[in-house]
Design brief:
Keywords: ATP-binding, Coiled coil, DNA-binding, Endonuclease, Hydrolase, Nuclease, Nucleotide-binding, RNA-binding, rRNA-binding
Strand order of the largest sheet: 1-11-12-13-9-14-15
Subunit structure: Homodimer. Binds to stalled ribosomes, contacting rRNA.
Oligomer: single chain
Shape: flat
Number of strands: 24
GO molecular function, one term: ATP binding
Radius of gyration: 42 Å
Protein name: Endonuclease MutS2
InterPro entries: DNA_mismatch_repair_MutS_C, DNA_mismatch_repair_MutS_core, DNA_mismatch_repair_MutS_sf, MutS, MutS2, P-loop_NTPase, Smr_dom, Smr_dom_sf
Number of domains: 5
């Protein structure tokens, strides 16, 4: 698949794997991250890409996946498979926690059926056998200890131990009090030695008490004596403890035997947890590098849009700097891109970005490029990067390069991507250039795809004439004398050797001497490349201005066409309205004229009255002049489709929410602090003005980042009672809104006052199902587990 063996290391893929590994929660996920390899099966690559994309969508827009707690079930299943073996209390507890996580994950996706089909396929046909949990819970309590009532015999033994210990303590207390009254004991109280309760007796009084001496102090002045009266009772306790251990092993063995038929299912559950952890790690890495899923193609085509090297992107983020995006196309017509340009101009980064993103896609990883990018599938990826000289194999740098070229020419085909950095270097340029040209010609005949970087002019000339090979250059600001890190295809680039040397400050006499030593032909070629780059820049600027003017003209034409269409559609109505208005004006004018003539006749043509009537007629005619037609409005455009960020209202209620995702006929809404999935037909789009201010304000209080950062744990040690309860109440409210099943409250042990206050409050909280102590190894009754 890849050649040589260190090709993935050279491209930076090993570092990408390490970053994904660091995101895994479990050792199973980390093992899967270590096994990431580029694949050549289209269906498999497509499946892995879609799983990572769906998980990224969950992390950005949905509630967190409930996979915080799980362990390696496969190891436990392998142990349980052996006849006569048994799992310990702690191992059963780890199995119980892991199975709880498995069933929570399956329930999570069942609630979102159809939204994440590729992730749902991970547990398709996987049965939910909750009987396993019930069987374990009958024996193991929530703290990971065996229940006292796991069997009748166990309950009797525990009761007998408690009774015997109580009797022994009562007896030794009597002896201790009597010895203290007699002044036989040393300072201090009862103590334990070798697991036995003893009295500290002054050495000179050890003969005055009958019993067994277990130890003495460093000074020898105090001995630790077990009274004879208590010795028998303590032996009885020890025998009962052996009985307790045997009964515990019997119960655990029986439980393991009951679960043995489920071993294959447990291994399947293990596979689900491992895959989910791994996919989640890939999605988290994609979020870090702003990754997206490109369009996957079956042929050997590559079209990267705004692509960035993921490791360079992360490094620049730390310094709050941006990475210049890369746009490159490789297809049937442009199979090989020969990149030239100045040193430190980004040629190698360009080539490595293409190679690394190709490997990442074929490994099922999202890449830092626009989703409009297109990536094909290659059967082989060959890379010659860096210095691989070998003392053991007696290979120089150039010999190592030639060994790789030999392999490339022999094994490459049309489904091979070839990446070569600084092609032909390592020997005399007079011979290295022609050798590199011959190798490039041989590779081109095999129809390979790839990216090659070089400074050799003969390779630039060959690429210009050869079919399927395209020149490209990394742009350089010839005025500011600095690289621009932008790839431009269609022409070779100058090395800008003299310009860079001049900027660094090399003396002029040295520069002039160097210029005189190169051939006149090479001078003309280099000058021509610089002039071409300058002319190309002017042409690009002119073309951009022309495109801007074309867009303005097109917008005016579209507006004119809309106006014309509107006039055509409404011409008849406008003419009819105009005729009616004209008729009304004429009728009004006629009537006014008739009234004026009648008034003149009645006044027998009196001059003053006639003058007044004529003035009145003139004023009325002026009022009835045809008014300017109102401006025509363009017909309203049809309603737009729903999109992320739109505000909608449920048709069957007054509830208002904001769209955060769309999937087929389902709409994911943010309603205040809650997330809800409803059918598209149940919502109606509304404008921002129709949304109350308090609703808009509340919608912004719970972002995806705050959900991801929420920790279901609270430390109230050192707080006053009222302050602790206030913080706990806030934690409970947010846990309910986010759907978290459990919380941990750390209050410490102390005198138990704060613990009692908190637990009394939790018992009155209606949404708390039950509360328990944490596991004894992880804090015991100093931590309260709250199940919602």
């Amino acid at each position: 698949m890849t050649y040589p063996e260190n090709a993935l290391d050279k491209l930076g893929f090993t570092e990408v794997k390490a970053l994904i590994r660091s995101q895994c929660l479990s050792e199973m996920g980390r093992e899967m991250a270590d096994r990431i390899r580029p694949m050549s099966n289209f269906e498999q690559i497509n499946k892995f890409l879609r799983q990572a994309d769906e998980c990224k969508n969950i992390l950005e827009n949905d509630s967190p996946l409930p996979i915080q707690n799980f362990y390696n079930i496969e190891q436990l299943a392998r142990k349980a498979r052996v006849e006569g073996s048994f799992l310990t209390e702690d191992e059963f507890f780890r199995l119980l926690v892991s199975l709880t996580t498995v069933f929570a994950v399956i329930a999570y996706f069942n609630d979102r059926e159809g939204l994440y089909p590729n992730l749902e396929a991970l547990f398709e046909h996987l049965p939910v056998e909750k009987k396993i949990i019930r069987q374990i819970e009958q024996v193991i309590d929530p703290r990971g200890k065996i229940r006292p009532n796991a069997s009748k015999e166990l309950q009797e033994i525990i009761s007998a131990i408690a009774k015997a210990e109580q009797e022994a303590r009562k007896k030794i207390s009597q002896v201790f009090n009597q010895a203290r009254e007699n002044g036989w004991v040393a300072d201090g109280g009862l103590t334990v030695r070798d697991g036995r309760l003893c009295i500290p007796v002054l050495a000179e009084n050890k003969r005055k008490l009958k019993g067994f001496i277990h130890d003495e102090s460093a000074s020898g002045q105090t001995v630790y004596l077990e009274p004879e009266e208590v010795f028998r009772l303590n032996n009885q306790v020890r025998d009962l403890e052996f009985d307790l251990r045997r009964e515990t092993i019997r119960i655990l063995t029986a439980l393991t035997t009951e679960l043995r038929p489920y071993v294959p299912l447990l291994e399947s559950y293990h596979g689900l947890l491992a895959k989910l952890d791994f996919v989640r790690a890939k999605a988290l890495f994609a979020l870090e590098v702003e990754g997206a899923m490109p369009e996957l193609l079956t042929d050997q085509t590559l079209n990267l849009v705004n692509a960035r090297h993921p490791l360079l992107l992360l490094a620049m983020k730390k310094h709050q700097q941006a990475v210049v995006p890369l746009n490159v196309r490789i297809d049937q017509g442009q199979r090989i891109v020969v990149v030239s340009g100045p040193n430190a101009g980004g040629k190698s980064v360009c080539m490595k970005t293409v190679g690394l993103l190709q490997v990442m896609v074929q490994a099922g990883l999202l890449i830092p490029a626009d989703s409009a990018s297109k990536v094909g599938v290659f059967r082989q990826i060959f890379a010659d990067i860096g210095d691989d000289q070998s003392i053991e194999s007696d290979l120089s740098t150039y010999s190592a390069h030639l060994s790789k070229m030999k392999y490339f020419v022999q094994h490459a085909d049309a489904r091979t991507m070839v990446l070569i950095d600084e092609f032909g270097t390592g020997t005399d340029p007079q011979f290295g250039g022609p050798m590199a040209e011959a190798v490039l010609e041989a590779l081109n005949k095999k129809k390979i795809r790839g990216v090659i970087t070089t400074h050799y002019s003969n390779l630039k000339i060959f690429a210009n004439a050869a079919e399927g090979i395209e020149n490209a250059s990394m742009l350089f600001d010839s005025v500011g004398l600095r690289p621009m890190y932008i790839l431009e295809t269609g022409k070779p680039g100058s090395s800008y050797a003299f310009e860079i040397a001049q900027k660094i400050g090399l003396p002029n006499e040295v520069l002039e001497s160097a210029k005189s030593k190169i051939g006149e032909h090479q001078k003309r070629v280099d000058s021509m490349l610089i002039d071409l780059e300058r002319d190309k820049k002017l042409l690009v600027e002119s073309r951009a201005e022309m495109q801007k003017q074309e867009r303005r003209v097109k917008a005016l034409i579209d507006e004119n066409e809309k106006l014309k269409a509107y006039l055509e559609e409404n011409k008849k109505g406008i003419l009819k309205a105009a005729k009616q208005e004209a008729q009304q004006i004429i009728q009004g004018a006629n009537k006014l004229i008739e009234n004026t003539i009648s008034g003149i006749r009645e006044s027998k043509a009196d001059q003053q009255i006639t003058r007044d009537l004529r003035e009145n007629l003139r004023q009325e005619m002026k009022k009835n002049e045809v008014k300017e037609a109102p401006k025509l409005a363009i017909a309203a455009q049809p309603a737009e489709e729903l999109a992320q960020g739109d505000w909608v209202k449920l048709t069957d209620s007054d509830t208002i929410g904001q769209v955060i995702d769309l999937h087929k006929d389902n709409v994911v809404l943010a309603i205040g602090d809650l997330r809800s999935v409803v059918k598209r037909k149940r919502v109606q789009k509304i404008t921002m003005k129709e949304v109350p201010k308090e609703v808009r304000k509340s919608s912004s209080t719970l972002s995806a980042d705050s959900i991801a950062q929420f920790k279901p744990e609270l430390d109230v040690r050192g707080m006053r009672g009222e302050e602790a309860l206030y913080e706990i109440e806030k934690l409970l409210d947010r846990a309910l809104m986010m759907g978290f099943p459990s919380l941990r409250i750390i209050h410490g042990k102390g005198d138990g006052i704060l613990r009692k206050l908190i637990r009394d409050y939790l018992r009155k909280y209606s949404h708390v199902k039950r509360i328990e102590d944490e596991h004894a190894d992880r804090g015991g009754d100093g931590i309260t587990y709250v199940y919602m």
